[in-house]
Amino acid sequence: MSKPFISRPHFPEGYLTDPKGFVDWRQVESQLIAAKNYWLCTVRPNGHPHVVPKWGVWVDGNLYFDGSPETRHARNIAENPHVSVHLESGDEAVIMDGLARAHPKPSRQLGVELARSYTAKYAAVGYAPKPDQWDNGGLFIVTPRVVLAWTKFTDDPTKFTF
Questions:
Q1: CATH number, position 71
Q2: What is the pLDDT of residue 16?
Q3: Range of the structural domain that residue 142 is part of
């Protein structure tokens, strides 16, 4: 993944008076790696939003999640790849806009890394996939385009553009 361009998000007048700095991208990636639940927002064919919590893993600058291609969110992605993903905290926010798609059979190396990452996060709650779990589909990838993050909204709201 290339290094993101860092800027301040645009806010209407009066939202920010004296921001102090920017969030470090490494901190944002740490949050993306550590998160247990990712709120995925897709768009239904009628234009209405659909939001669902997903388990997933952040690997090599992308968010991977799995599931049936028959779910509402997977069908939405097939029609419109634009998604938003939000971590659970509103105080230390990470909000990602990107493009999602079904991922073809992963390479052996990627399958091993995904299985290792999922197992590290979710084995204690009963999910530890094998590297060949996604050989016949069911894997999705979100590639970030813009990520907004802050640790204190009035001090360091940061926009990362890829």
A1: 2.30.110.10
A2: 85
A3: 18-105+137-161
Give the C-alpha separation, 78 to 101, whole Å. Answer: 7
3-state class (DSSP) for residue 116: helix
Q: What angle do CA 10, 86, 31 make, to 5 degrees?
A: 100
Cβ atoms of 94 and 142 closer than 8 Å: no
What are φ and ψ of residue 61, in 5° steps?
A: 80, 15
Q: How many domains would you assign to the chain? A: 1
What pLDDT sits at residue 17?
84
C-alpha 126/C-alpha 55 separation (Å) is: 12
Q: What is the pLDDT of residues 96-128, one digit of tens each?
A: 999 999 999 999 999 999 999 999 999 999 999
18 pLDDT higher than 70: yes
Contact criterion met (CB below 8 Å) for 157 and 19 = yes
